[in-house]
Amino acid sequence: xxxxxxxxxxxxxxxxxxxxxxxxxxxxxxxxxxxxxxxxxxxxxxxxxxxxxxxxxxxxxxxxxxxxxxxxxxxxxxxxxxxxxxxxxxxxxxxxxxxxxxxxxxxxxxxxxxxxxxxxxxxxxxxxxxxxxxxxxxxxxxxxxxxxxxxxxxxxxxxxxxxxxxxxxxxxxxxxxxxxxxxxxxxxxxxxxxxxxxxxxxxxxxxxxxxxxxxxxxxxxxxxxxxxxxxxxxxxxxxxxxxxxxxxxxxxxxxxxxxxxxxxxxxxxxxxxxxxxxxxxxxxxxxxxxxxxxxxxxxxxxxxxxxxxxxxxxxxxxxxxxxxxxxxxxxxxxxxxxxxxxxxxxxxxxxxxxxxxxxxxxxxxxxxxxxxxxxxxxxxxxxxxxxxxxxxxxxxxxxxxxxxxxxxxxxxxxxxxxxxxxxxxxxxxxxxxxxxxxxxxxxxxxxxxxxxxxxxxxxxxxxxxxxxxxxxxxxxxxxxxxxxxxxxxxxxxxxxxxxxxxxxxxxxxxxxxxxxxxxxxxxxxxxxxxxxxxxxxxxxxxxxxxxxxxxxxxxxxxxxxxxxxxxxxxxxxxxxxxxxxxxxxxxxxxxxxxxxxxxxxxxxxxxxxxxxxxxxxxxxxxxxxxxxxxxxxxxxxxxxxxxxxxxxxxxxxxxxxxxxxxxxxxxxxxxxxxxxxxxxxxxxxxxxxxxxxxxxxxxxxxxxxxxxxxxxxxxxxxxxxxxxxxxxxxxxxxxxxxxxxxxxxxxxxxxxxxxxxxxxxxxxxx
Length: 766
What we know:
alpha/beta; Rossmann fold; 4 domains; six-stranded parallel beta sheet; 29 helices; 16 strands; 10% strand
C-alpha cells in the first residue's frame, strides 16, 4: 500500500528494513526510544515550516521527553554543523529555521479537579514545557485550568467537591441534598465550559498537528476504550488501565480511581481533515494494542483506530512496539538470513495458530504455513529439531549448580523476585553457593504518603506505650541503632510464622525508628518524637503525588530496603548479602564514581561467577532499566580489564513489563506450583507497601505477583503446546511433573553481553 509520506518520514523509512507498509494507518518503526523522539521532533518542525500560524496539540509526560529534547536541540543548532548534519540526513536540507511563536497551542487533557499549580497537573506541565519551554504565546493558547472554570455562586471546586470525587450520575438523576444540587449545577457548568473549549478549537480551524502517546487500552488523550469516534471535549471518567498508568502521577490508584478528566474528543481530532495526527509508542508491552490500532477497522474498542479517517495520520513506533504487526513479522523472516531461532519461532507459533501439539504436527502442516514453508531443508525431522532445542534449554534451566557466587541485580525493588525468583530459590538450597541481591535505585516513588503517615502514627503510639524497647538502651542513639538490623527482619519473619499481624507491624515500626535516627541524626527519644511530628506535618500538608523533601524520600527508600531484605531472608539470605547501591543517575549525577564504581567495587569484593540483570531490548521501558544495564556493563567492562572473566556468565531476565519468547533465550526454567505459592506468599507478606497495589500494572487490578504468575503460567502453556502435556505429566523428573509455570532468560558470555549493551547504547545515543 502506498502512503503519502513526507520528506522526513521517507528518510527515516529508508533506514529501516521495513519498507512495505500494508497497515490501514501508515507507520514508521525506529530502533530506539530516543530516535522515536528525533523522528517526532523533525516531523513537527517540518510541519511548522509549512504552517507557522498553525494549531498544535502536543504530549505531556515522560513519553514526550525525547521529542522536546530534540526539538530544542534542532532549533538551537539549526544553522551550525551539528544541526545541519541531522537536517541534511533527514530531509530538511536548506529549509529555513522555523519560529514557534506564531503557533496556537491546545492542551489535550487535564485531571479534574486539580490545583493548576501542582507539579503533577497537566496545565502546569503545558505551561512549563510548551508556553515557557517552546515559547508559545499563552494568549493564543487554549489551556485547561481547573480554577478558571466558573462554578455556581462563585465557589471553588474544593468547596463543591470537597473530596475531589464527582458523581456524574447527577447529570441524569435527581439531586437528593443541597450539596448534590450544587454539584449537579456545577457539572453542567463544567459541561458548558467544555463545549466552549471545543468551539474555540474549531474557531481556530481545528487542530493541525497532533502528537500523542497511546495508553495500554489504545486511548489517545483521555479517550479510553468505548469512546465515540465523534466525541468532543468533555468531562469524563476513566477506566482501570488509564487509572493504573496515571497512578504514579497522582500518588496512587486510590487517588486516580476517583479523579475525573477533561479531554478533547476523538471527533475534535477530525474537525480539521488535514490534521497531521501522530501517535507514538515504544516497547513490546504496547505491541498488542498497536497491532489492533493500525491493522483493525475503526472500532470503539481501540480508540486510536479513529485516526484512520485522517489522510495525514501516522504511527511512529520503536521496533519493539511494532513487533506484532504483520509487516514486522514478514520482515523478521525475510529481511535477514535464516537461522534456527527463526525455525523455533515458526514452529512454536504454528502450534498456536492451528492449536496442535508439536508432536502431532505433520509435514503438510508446515508446508501449508506461510512461515514454516520458508524453513530451509524442511523435512520430517524439522519439528523434532525444535523440540530437541527447547528440551535442551529446559535441561539447562534444571541444572543444580554448586560452588557459585551469584550477584543478582534489580533496577527497582521486586524486579529480581518478579523476574527469576524460582531460580534464586534453587540456588540458595545448596550451601556451597553464595548469593547476593543488589538493588540499584531507591524505590521511594513506590511508597505512598498515606502509607508512611499511617506507619508513623503507629510508631508514635508504640513509642508512647513503651513498646519500642530498643530506644531505652543507653547506647542506642549513639551507635546502637547501626547494629542488629537483621533483628528487625527475624522479628517480622517470626511473626509471619506465628500469624501475628500486630507483631509484624511492630517489626516494621522498629525499622522505621532506625531509619529516622539515621536520617535525622536523632540523639534521644524526644528528638525522635520531634522527627516523627515533622514528617507527619509535611505529609499532612502535601498533595497526592507531590514531590517529597529529600529526607522524606530517603525514609521511603529505607522502607523499601527493609522489604527487600525481608523477601530474601525468607530463603535464608542474610541482611549483609542484600545491597542497596543508590546509583547517582537517579539524582542527576552521571559520574563514574557514583554510578559504576559502587557496582565495580562489589564485583571486586564478592567475585561473582554469575551476574543477573534486567534486560530491555530498546531502552523503551522505564529509563531506569536502561541506565542500570549500561552502568552494569561499564562495571563488567572495567572488571574484565582487571581479571580473567572468561567463565563469568551474564543472566538477562525480564518481568511483567517486557517478556522474552522461547526462541529469544538460552534457558527455560520450570516453575512448580509450590514456587508459584511461594511467590504469592512472600510478595504479599514482605512488600508491605505494594500489597494493596497503589501502583498496579494496567494488566490486572491487583498485586504484581498476581500478574507475574499469569505470565509464568502463559509461558508454560506455550512450551506445553509444543512438547505436549504428557511430556510434563509423565516425565521421569519430579520437577517437570510438578511444573505449572515457566521462566525464560538469557545466558551470555561477557563478550556477548558487552556487545549487546554497546549496540543498545549506540542506538540510544544516536
